[in-house]
């Protein structure tokens, strides 16, 4: 059988060029030519000169760091990458984060010169983890999907932690990863190191779908499908692996058809099951609603308020999203332990860990779990959270509910509300009025208690976290503000002191508790808030920030207004407490001199204001005295309202 | 089996809840009559030593440097538990708090810590006004 030799095109020519060291007189030879000149080495594949190919070419040595030493060959007027950008534009993708890389250089250039750097607009990120976390935060504010360009194997691996956070948090984003599929066309060792046989496999356990299109038409189909899959609850990241050669080749003939993205209907809980839930809720004496990753859209909060008010049921907000206003009297999150202990019906809406809601395993050797609820409690779960994969264990312990309804929580609420209205007899009205008054009193008392508690340690040194949050609140309360960071490391003081009453005022946490999320997610969220002129506020842990300090530069570079207040406790404080616990358990070395080893971020202390200033950001601190905090906040807010980010470093207590 | 375990846990929880209730009552009363409850004579050096121990043994990590409390540990001051109850709780805490055995924290040191906590005064009206400045539209 005679082998046909394909004509040498630009890519093949370049990949075949080898300059055999300076001593060889810089004589270019093709691989085929070399094969013809010398007999093959024993065991080597035909037509390959193993000896010559083992010597790095000038192209190899300079391709990542300098100008190419060879002729780039003929021009390409209409690269396929232009069409790919048209597809992304059709998906209404506003932004695409990039840490630049050669495996997607054609798409990069097409976004700039073909797309005019609009829809999508490139966001320069100093680490793929930053780009993905930005997309994560951005989507949680406006519900849109951002793209992230990743450079082959290395970019995907850098991105992996942030993708896992987004996966666990059910947030859509589209990763477009470059790859060199055809091994015979990889021009140098870098191309090999940056390529994978199945690049999507690197993230497959924490993405909902991936594909590696082999043609332009395939790219269009898969990009549209990826968008639809990612945006359909349960939402999650998706990956498209795009061959570098496919990007760089010229578009031949008519561009392929680009299908419309048609959003499917969102899965809703079964009607008869929801009727059953309504019956149980109406009949219950002590019902409780627990909401976690419920409010997907701006409608979610209003629907939950409506359901709670119809029945006068207290709501516990676990706050993977902002589900319920803190100002509403039925927000009884502060009393969650006693409410759950007494409840006869618990309605868990998109609760991440329903077993953990109703049980606890004390952190002691050989401890057995114990229930936090009555034996006869009816636990009802509504959500899509169980639809996960096997490897990563984020699906949580099996909850054994009385009734489990598979369906999107928010989408199921309207039907449930109507069912409750139908099931509710008129004679219950006096009892509901009594409930209402009781919860109003409890709510008012809890809020008053928060003020009293925040005043404790008011002048403490380091600055108390309550004081820090109280000062920030006083500075922002008249603005149209939004908190774009999590609150658990601040002992939830934001939720005890601030008035959250609009759906966009909080975006929840990371999903997987992987550090390196908060700072870039805050920047992404602030980018989404910028379109609405809102004041985005990030209360930022020092440990998380040092995973991804480059996020500050991206905020400064793209003029993303964001107030960052560094909660600088100079330690990985969660781990301080864990080491303390182990030292106590082992009855040795419990003092700070021991516990700080491997946990403290001190000696030298990091000056976050100088760090931010070095990246062109207005910054103040370190603030050591609480009295200096308000003036700094006022200056910082002026900067942010002027359209730039600002940072204040507050040396503060652990929690 | 689970029920037996649960029964034991309930007894344990009841005990601890009684202790907590004592704590809350003590806390309420304590703010009014703190010096009487502190017990014995407090010296500045006892308080200073107690403050140092409170920090050095990691109590402040979870409860705050002034015992003000956080999500990681309840408020301890002003108005800490009576000394006897305090000693019991530190040696056999409920739920998440790690137990401090005699081997790592002596009773004498615990008494100093208690003295420090008992010396902490309630927020003054100015501080309460300050925290309330931003309150409620």
How would you summarize what this structure contains?
The complex is a heterodimer of chains A (655) and B (137). Chain A has 655 residues and is α/β, with parallel strands linked by helices. Chain A is 40% helix and 13% strand.
Percent helix of chain B? 55-70%
Mean pLDDT score of chain A: 90
Strand residues, percent of chain B: under 5%
The value of Rg of chain A in angstroms is: 29 Å
Query: Which strand order does the major sheet of chain A show?
Result: 4-3-5-6-8-7
Evaluate the radius of gyration of chain B.
Answer: 17 Å
How many extended strands of chain A?
Answer: 20
Query: Pairing-aware structural class of the strands and helices of chain A?
Result: alpha/beta
The string of secondary-structure elements of chain B, in order, is HHHHHHH
Main β-sheet of chain B: number of strands, strand sense, barrel status?
Answer: none
Q: N-to-C terminal Cα separation of chain A, in Å?
A: 75 Å
| Oligomerization category of the chains in this entry | heterodimer
**Largest two-chain interface:** A-B, 50 and 43 residues
User: How many DSSP E strands of chain B?
Assistant: 0
Give average pLDDT of chain B, whole number: 75
Characterize the biggest β-sheet of chain A.
6 strands, parallel
Percent range for β-strand residues of chain A: 5-15%
**Low-pLDDT stretches of chain A:** 1-62
Q: Low-confidence stretches of chain B at least 5 residues in length (pLDDT < 50)?
A: 1-39
